[in-house]
């Protein structure tokens, strides 16, 4: 059996970016995390679930396109902001040491110019949503900008990230119905606590490097008690989604799908291992399935 230490780097040098894009383009693709789309999916899937619930069925196709582009662009912009703020830390973290900005493939000036371009493209989408949703979109920008700084002064940056990542759920309701019912807010809060859970799994990958650099995270806050905290946040998510489903008058099949969500989250807790950081990264990515189950629950609940 091999005892070699797993490489935790999140840059794969033989992927489609390296094979098919010019080197100068590839650096920006990696800065925008186009090579690692899991974050975009984790942003988009709960948003699609909210669009379905708000529409009482399948959402308008054009609205689905706009929100999909919004998830892609804002997640990419958030990744660029993150790398700009963390450029001096990333070189000392095993997972992030090869990222374009910290490794010198992209300069700080180029990264800032790229960020402005990302925000400009995102701003174009404002013309296709209603005024209520535009204000919500503008309220998201400070969260995107300050999130990377939170790890310097609080152990709860994952809560800020959870609010930002799932902001599209609120906008889905505001743009579809021009309202924000309590059920929609509870669905968003459930997604926020879910993200605290799964992003804590991700944070355990970096916990040794974070301790050495003096950076904070929920993983550092929970320490060896992580399984109990994760269980609490996952239970909270399921309960919030059940209550929200009742307030939104979801059909009975919705609750069967939420039971599958609960089973999937329980499986994550069973597999979680503090001594296997590479397993934490795998479990983080497995939450794409949680998002897909939320969409299934929303479809079943609106029949």
Automatic annotation (TrEMBL):
Q: Name one GO cellular component term.
A: plasma membrane
Compartmental location: Cell inner membrane; Membrane
State the pathway, as annotated in the record. Cofactor biosynthesis; ubiquinone biosynthesis
**What is the protein's given name?**
4-hydroxybenzoate octaprenyltransferase
Q: From the UniProt record, which GO molecular function terms apply? A: 4-hydroxybenzoate polyprenyltransferase activity
GO BP terms, alphabetized = ubiquinone biosynthetic process
Organism in which the protein naturally occurs: Pelistega suis
Query: What is the protein's known function?
Result: Catalyzes the prenylation of para-hydroxybenzoate (PHB) with an all-trans polyprenyl group. Mediates the second step in the final reaction sequence of ubiquinone-8 (UQ-8) biosynthesis, which is the condensation of the polyisoprenoid side chain with PHB, generating the first membrane-bound Q intermediate 3-octaprenyl-4-hydroxybenzoate.
| Catalysis performed (reactions) | all-trans-octaprenyl diphosphate + 4-hydroxybenzoate = 4-hydroxy-3-(all-trans-octaprenyl)benzoate + diphosphate
Q: Which cofactor does it need?
A: Mg(2+)
Enzyme Commission designation: 2.5.1.39
Membrane-topology annotation of the record:
Multi-pass membrane protein
